[in-house]
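EI: anyone free to look at a 222-residue chain?
SC: sure, send it
EI:
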Amino acid sequence: MNVIITGTTGMIGESVLLECLASPAVDHVLILNRNSLGRQHAKLVEVLHKDFTDFSPLQATINDFAPDACYHCMGVSSVGMDEESYSRLTFDVTKSLADTVYAATPGAVFTYVSGAGSDETESGNTMWARVKGKTENYVLNRGFKDAYAFRIGAVIPEKGVKSSTGWVNLLYIVIRPIFGLMKHSSSVITSSQLGQSMIAVSKKPVAEKRLESKDIAATVAG
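SC: here you go
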């Protein structure tokens, strides 16, 4: 497979990247970043792009890459943001990426990293949940061969992965002694499971398109 990944400078995207680089099912990886990740690998190509609300300048690059799957892992916190700003950095970014990938390869599998509690009705009281629900709906209805919304909650970092947010890394240090207990919770997945699941559903579709943590773990169980 040829795979596109966004958000690799963050914990979620880096987790997915590591699994793709290690997987024999993945032949080439194209990462789209604003700032260089600085990683070298035989499978890996990095393209720098500043305006993530408009991926159309990369149309020729993505056409030539001919992706079989796209893992959209970038995201921003809604803290301190109004709905218009949060929607621009969540829905508008995802829409532009999905449209550009679809124009290149309608037969691709598109996976959007959403969040637990997202509101697909787009009518609830929680702003971020409405915006993520709207984003999920767009991706799932865009017309790809297959598409998924990964509604992740707690993710335990593995293989040296760290968050790009300082206080999150501090929190992980504090709770590290209970990682073993946390892994038994259906609402918790590991960073390795996350990447492996994206690869798994790209190769073999599953019926549920909005995957909660327990569903994500089930795709790689055993």
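EI: The chain has a mean pLDDT of 90.
SC: 👍
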